[in-house]
Specification:
The protein is globular. Strands 1-7-8 form a three-stranded antiparallel beta sheet, with no helix packed on it. A three-stranded antiparallel beta sheet has the order 3-4-5, with no helix packed on it. The chain has a two-stranded antiparallel sheet with strand order 2-6. Strand 7 (68-75) and strand 8 (80-85) form a beta hairpin. It has no helices and eight strands. By secondary structure, it is mostly beta strands. It has strands at residues 7-14, 17-19, 21-22, 32-35, 48-51, 60-62, 68-75, 80-85.
C-alpha cells in the first residue's frame, strides 16, 4: 500500500529468487528500483537506486535462508528500503 507519494509498504511472503521494483505497473520498459550492487543478499543494507531502462540489472537475492514473511518499506525520496522479517 502507499503511505504517501514517496513511501510504499508491502507485506507478504518473499520466495527464494531475485527481486527488483518497476516504477510503472505491468511494464518492463520503465525505470526500476534496485540495490547498489548486483546479487545483493545482505537485506540489512538499506540503500537503493533508480536505474532507467537499459541500465544495469542489479537485483536483491532472497535465499532459502532469508525467504519468509516480510514487511518491506520503500522510501523513494530517501532512496532506502527496509526489510523486516515477520
Amino acid at each position: 500500500w502507499q503511505i504517501n507519494t514517496s513511501l510504499f509498504v508491502f507485506e507478504g511472503y518473499l520466495n527464494p529468487g531475485e527481486m527488483k521494483f518497476p516504477l510503472e505497473e505491468r511494464s518492463w520498459f520503465t525505470s526500476f528500483l534496485m540495490p547498489m550492487e548486483n546479487r545483493q543478499e545482505d537485506l540489512s543494507n538499506t540503500a537503493m537506486q533508480e536505474i532507467p531502462t537499459g541500465g544495469v540489472d542489479n537485483k536483491w537475492i532472497i535465499t532459502n535462508a532469508t525467504a519468509g514473511n516480510y514487511k518491506l518499506t520503500l522510501d523513494v525520496e530517501k532512496m532506502t528500503i527496509k526489510f523486516e522479517k515477520k
